[in-house]
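Homework help thread (please don't just give me the answer)

Our assignment gives two proteins as sequence + structure token strings and asks us to describe the second one. The first is just a warm-up. Here they are:
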Amino acid sequence: MLIKVFGSAVFGVEATTITVEVNIDKGIGYHLVGLPDNAIKESNYRIAASLKNNGYAIPGKKITINMAPADLRKEGSAYDLTLAMGILAASNQIDLQNQLEDYLIMGELSLDGSLQPIKGALPIAIKAKEEGFKGFFLPIQNKDEAAIVSGLDVYGVENIKQVIDFFEGSSSLQPTVIDIKEAFYKNLDYPEFDFSEVRGQESIKRCMEIAAAGGHNIILIGPPGAGKTMLAKRLPSILPPMTIDEALETTKIHSVAGKVKETGILTQRPFRSPHHTISDVALVGGGTYPQPGEISLAHNGVLFLDELPEFKRTVLEVMRQPLEDREVTISRAKFTVTYPSSFMLVASMNPSPSGYFNDPNAPVTSSPAEMQRYLGKISGPLLDRIDIHIEVTPVPFEKLSEDRKGESSLEIRNRVMAARVRQTDRFKELDNLHYNAQMNTKHIRKFCALDETSKHLLKTAMERLNLSARAYDRILKVSRTIADLEGADSICSTHIAEAIQYRSLDRDGWLG
């Protein structure tokens, strides 16, 4: 008897429906075809044990299972439940009252028949709805993630017996229903880290506000203990809240990586802080069977690289193209996947190997040659993609001991959101341009016009401070954001003067 059951495979952040055809005929044998990987080939042992422990068995006949399309590689253990239901139906061990063809079935089986969570539940659910499936059976741990998709009955199950009983009509299951708007808006105004906890550092807070308002990449330079990491962790709290579309897009990526928590939809912007020993593949994504890397997991959020010069040079170089294109494409011989990676880069670094630069009281000092070797690990093309460089100085005791709380993240966020509204209105005629950091040279010439006073000031600064040519466009972008925060229609000399301060690493003596 021939039975068809449906599962799904995830490539990149999109799912493809897989038809599992199970045919049982005279003879003996178990043949699984359709480019399954080792995890799927081993499934017959898990299926046999789980069926036996629930009162069923794999029939002693010739079983041929085809996973179509047969030229598409299938991977992972999430097809266990799909295959098991196909075998039970094809061998007439269950009396079907509900049609298997109406449902998508996925899940990894334990030997006792219970189900383990799977990866990619959200993109699979989206595809199931698009293709008109009535419902989706999956492990109970993934139900909230998949239930984000409306118009599809999502059944979270704990074991294979619940699925069998449903299709035999001996019991009913209630689909999981989630009010996506309620789930989304519930945690928006409660950031984990708040700027009110930061003592002093008013100039750096201002700098972070500008970076958030314009979506600018930023690098913090200062000695150990100055507060670089503390400030970076609080940046997501002043970014505009994610829209529902952004949240769904971000949740899809985390779903593919198997990192979605029980809340279902991600409500807070992601903050990723990989260790400096990370490999190229772990940062940008890839592998034999490509998975999203840290830059994609930080999509619509913040990627924090602490101690930037400690990262391997090759790791930093592979990040240059995703920073520019806001997506990363991973190519293999037989297929290509693309992951979105539109993130804000926040980096921190010590100004020298010892961490203390131009400090006469420093416990350790570094020679000029050591400093150049240390700073030379960061290439010019990478710095070219970082708009703001700011020096962070240690906070004096008087500031640390103050009882007065600083401005809260929500207050700062309101100003950031007002500036973003101005940018959205300015760029409404342009596709894929939403905030100032995304402007190219053509847009800068159009939207960052300077008066004579501002031009003269910028020219003088570039000559006297020995600013590099790459700093010119960056200063204009940042000054445009400063003007937006003030609600000004045009850039004036005060905006240029402030933006010039934020190019520390372009000054003569830093990078040679």
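The one we have to describe:
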Amino acid sequence: MLIDLAGKSALVTGSTQGIGAAIAVGLARAGARVAVNGRTRESVDAALERMRGELPRAHFLAAPGDIAADEGAERVWAAVPHVDILVNNLGIFGTRPALEIDDAEWRRYFEVNVLTAVRMIRAYLPGMRERGWGRIQNIASDSAVVTPAEMIQYGVSKTALLAVSRGFAKEAAGSGVTVNSVLAGPTHTGGVEDFVYELVDPSLPWAQAQREFMRLHRPQSLIQRLIEPEEIAHMVVYLSSTFASATTGGAVRVDGGYVDAILP
């Protein structure tokens, strides 16, 4: 399947590293003009240097700004006035015993993991509808369906993101714009390596630590390993294409079979 996104513009939030960076590279490799977002200009410039080194002929541009704050979101909108493809990837996670999660932390997770996506959709969906084409994807998680006991604040925020996707898909009905969630399973990123070592013996070599983490904490995984960020990006690139024109309002799984259900 040859996916050609030439002539399309994309914005990936939280794309200086990890899954977001892999998505930005994947979209650029398919020919899209990709705006890379991070909280600071320095982090964005460093990411752009790496990405341009990997894809010297690709078209990347900088869109720095903390979209969890009004001023930062406005900076991004000024840098990228309209897009054809919006990927809401920005998110935070961390372990905390359930009874120790205070109101401030609950609000922080909702602000970053849910409201940033709402804010960006509200900014870009009207233009997509006017042009009669667009793709919006919200990067959710298996934790949206299988709430993790060690970080229920994260799981609840990702559950809310599924409803955001479904609701805005209805708002975009019949317009040529699709809105979907991507349920990413346990994925190998720098942040997840730190998370793994919070739960298993930190003296273990990484390969052994990963196996121990999957055995003890994610035994439902059918691939029995962490997913690589590029594997999430492959699904995002497909959903961004014309081939996915009949897929909207869905929660599409790239979870390694982790969610033990026929449907999400």
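TA reply:
I won't write it for you, but here's a hint about the kind of observation we're looking for: Strands lie at 9-12, 33-36, 59-62, 85-88, 134-141, 177-184, 251-254.
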